[in-house]
# Entry
Amino acid sequence: MDSQIDFHQANALLEWQLEMGADEAICEKPQNRFEMPDVAPKVRTPAAAIKPVPARAPPPDPNLPVMAARAAADGANSLADLNAAMAAFDHCELKRGAKTTVFADGNPAARVMVIGEAPGRDEDIQGKPFVGRAGQLLDKMFSAIGLSRAGQDAEGALYITNILPWRPPQNRDPLPAEIAMMLPFVKRHVALAQPDILVLMGNISCQALLGKKGITRLRGNWTDAVDLPVLPMFHPAFLLRNPIAKRDAWHDLLMIKARLDKDRPE
Ligand code: URA
# Structure
């Protein structure tokens, strides 16, 4: 082939191709690709050789885990049943990363049921809610109004659980989908325990049961949810970081005591 370029130009072009990553000549003879037809000739494929394109699986229905949770929760007729149903529930990814399913602690006969957010590291290891630093503060707070998880009678007892029974990785906030999925279990838990009062610790439990966030505004105001009087309070983990807010927490504890005294069964 006659070439219009000299050796040096050809050498520079080759070097450029090498720099672009070309490492082998792929044709015996040079081809002028500018003269090739634009459209590749059609090759007839025999019908038998055409593979059927598999139908794309529809995306999973996001309501499915919630419906499964509702069915499992509604089928539980005792706290032991509910504990077993939650431990067997396989739709939540958090379960795969958790060591234990943290169900509850304290006395289920208690007049006061506390609902927190989710287990942390200590809770995941021990399989009980609120046993780390925040839990120790929670115990001190409630013992100041005569309530404890070790209390034997309903009057002096406390029952404690969380919105999620599995620790989120790195203690991140629970996702709305995780909350929605586990909410039927929480509601059933309350229905089976039948406390007189619910105390919601922090934003996540308020988001789950009241559909509201903004604990600074919500705390210290009685409201209703799941047919019970509900008091939102600052989460003890927040109180550890903001000790000045303990004054508000004390105010809220006194509100709980006053309500228990007022509504004490004869
Ligand atoms: N924080 C929570 O909300 N729950 C626990 O069990 C521990 C820490």
The first helix runs from residue 7 to 19. Residues 63-262 form a domain with the Uracil-DNA Glycosylase, subunit E fold (CATH 3.40.470.10). The chain has a mean pLDDT of 90. The two ends are 111 Å apart (CA to CA).
